[in-house]
């Protein structure tokens, strides 16, 4: 990231002259002001509002949330927790959406210009080393939310996705199911991989063979769940149970089943992961792994706020890694395997 000292060096003036130009002070010669303004534009420099706030005594931490998540319900839960904690901690949250690398850089630039002290990265950006490095270059700390493989030097808040998938698969097997289909998640998101690994481990533990033809790709979106549901349920030998890597895809599978006249759970057990609001609003309600998403958002903001306060006193805060508990929620979408 370009600093005020870079602008001064390229313009051939002092940092004080650049500062005075930015602040609109009249004690700058017109020719120097013009030269500084041209350099600022050429270098694409933006004011680090966070540092400015610190200098003038502003104390409320400003925390950005940079998101690129296809599941609105998941993001809403994160935001709910974040807002709850922000009102308690006296901090301000700034939300920015991004897609590809170009829009990601633009979103980061907006957050930095707005003076954020730290940025929370929900999935899948929580696993992006490039995003973390961009924040570091801007002098801003990062926190990875719901990553499966936290970076040692970056704070994180998460659950154990492997154990969650292991528990759900064991539960399905305990119901007597042997022919189990699985819908993977976004391969760019580390929890997706661990949820599949947990599924395979539970199947092998029970002495059951994983049928690769009944393991289908998904992207954590409802639409990808529709495609996966069709692939599994329109085949001549559909599975008796389907474990989807998140609730949106599980809900889509149930929609396909209803359309095909397949009764859930009498003829087909469907289970999900996350326990987002859709899990308890569809019919029948979805058996799923409850990830405390609201609490994850609350905890992320609490950790980030504390680290910002430490940094402002001159401390070098160490990374905090918080592992939170999941629970298996039994609802009406799962039943014993048909005889």
Automatic annotation (TrEMBL):
Keyword line: DNA-binding, Transcription, Transcription regulation
Domain spans labelled HTH lacI-type: 2-56
Pfam families for the chain: LacI, Peripla_BP_3
SUPFAM superfamilies: lambda repressor-like DNA-binding domains, Periplasmic binding protein-like I
Mitochondrion among keywords: no
GO molecular function: DNA binding
Transferase in keyword set: no
InterPro entries to which the protein is assigned, alphabetical: HTH_LacI, LacI/GalR-like_sensor, Lambda_DNA-bd_dom_sf, Peripla_BP_I
Protein's name in the database: LacI family DNA-binding transcriptional regulator
Protein species of origin: Rhizomicrobium electricum
